[in-house]
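Changelog-adjacent note: as of this version, every example in the card shows the full chain rather than a window. The one below runs 512 residues end to end.
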Amino acid sequence: MAGTEKICAVVASPHAEGMRKQLQVALASAKNVEIRLDWLPGDAEIGVFLRWLAALKKPKARLIATCRRREGGGHYAGSIAKQLVHLSAAIRAGCTWYDLEVETSSVCPPELLEVMLGEGRELRSAHFFQRMPRNLERVAANLRKGGPDAIKIAAQCNSLAQSLQLLQFARSQRKIVAIPMGEIAAPVRLLSVRMGSMFTYAPVEQPTAPGQMSLEEAQKLYRADKIDRRTRVYGVIGDPIGHSLSPTLQNAGFRARRINAVYLPFLVRNLQDFLGAVESLGIQGFSITIPHKERILRYLEGCDPLAEKIGAVNTVVVRGKGKLYGYNTDYVGVLRALQTRIPLQNSRVLIVGSGGVARAVAFALAQAGCSVCVCARRAEKARLLARAVGGAAIARNQLRGEFFDAIVNATPLGMHPNIWQSPLDENELNCRLVFDTIYRPRETRLLQLAARRGIQTVSGVDMFVAQGIAQWEIWTGERAPHETMSRAVLRALERAEEAARAPRREETSPTN
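Full-length structure tokens:
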């Protein structure tokens, strides 16, 4: 398998027709395709699909047949003999490789495997769905017994440190596929292709292992097939992170300017774990979202004076020897979103929240001449923020008797997937304009309540795009392709909204 063929598309469906459709999609864009026969419900359905495959014009892609038994973490319930029969039929049907889990290979005489599968090339695999194995050297040695053509180790990684441990081991090996599994390891899956792994997996449709990104995402959004040792790595850190459209925004800019860079989402629950991986992953800059905007300050080598004054950072540049320097571009986003809609000078604005976003909003509006009021669940934090910008703290039970030119939600209440939540009730919206810094969904529950009362509404999309473009320009030192980046975000939001309205299709959900 050539090193340039970095993505292996995964074809997996609970029925033969679905397998056929997925394979056709995979063959249109991938040079390596894994066919998960064990996803099919039984021997008869496997036979139907393989007869169709045998009649297919020989594809240019390299096909890898997998019929993983339940003992190896797959879904095939039949015997080892039947498993080998199916893999043999897959080789005759055009698969040049087969993946055989160690649970089967360890109990099969080499002579039997040679007779049954000798015409194909073997990828021998071991899967650890619960934890990282203690001794990777021993695992690899066991896999190489009998002389397979290549080996695969897939392991659950509950930290970036574990992901790096697996990939650093892979660098010492020849012909190995190394797969860190799990949500935290998801971005490292894509980077694995430049860190020792022969390729990474990406499903055509439903994921077959924890932490997988789809084939469309891997190819179009992250351009994983183009990642090499010269690729500049950026990312966004937060918890949660799956909702973020920052990768869509930033990667659109890199693609438009033909910059060899990739921007990835990192689910970060332990900030020190992420920071410990920055140098090893070659990360040159990252965005920060909830809940790390204030926590990151203690780890910075230096900080932009404005960000230091705000007390929250949403942008980090990594300089020599992994030193971190912080900035805050939320400030820019707030002004961009509001200054064309209301006269900010002398406006009375209520900010709901007291975290990192709220601090950026408060300082931006105070500098623009607004009279700032702060209402937050934690009264003391609200008082401290209000005092920092020369404003006033207001208790929530006072809101019904107050009037504001604008109300700004700077909390995560209402953010995807908890779209039914709102930080305020309808009768608390006594204002001319409501601005929600949340951009997904575009019309939050708060904005729906405001619109019901005839109040002007502003979604967080404008702020999101503006702050992200400012980040892009800090990192690259170039002028950002504003229109291209903005269009990419709007298209992604439209597609997400269409998908949310569409009826859901039920699928089985195997684990690998």
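Structural remarks: The longest strand covers residues 121-128.
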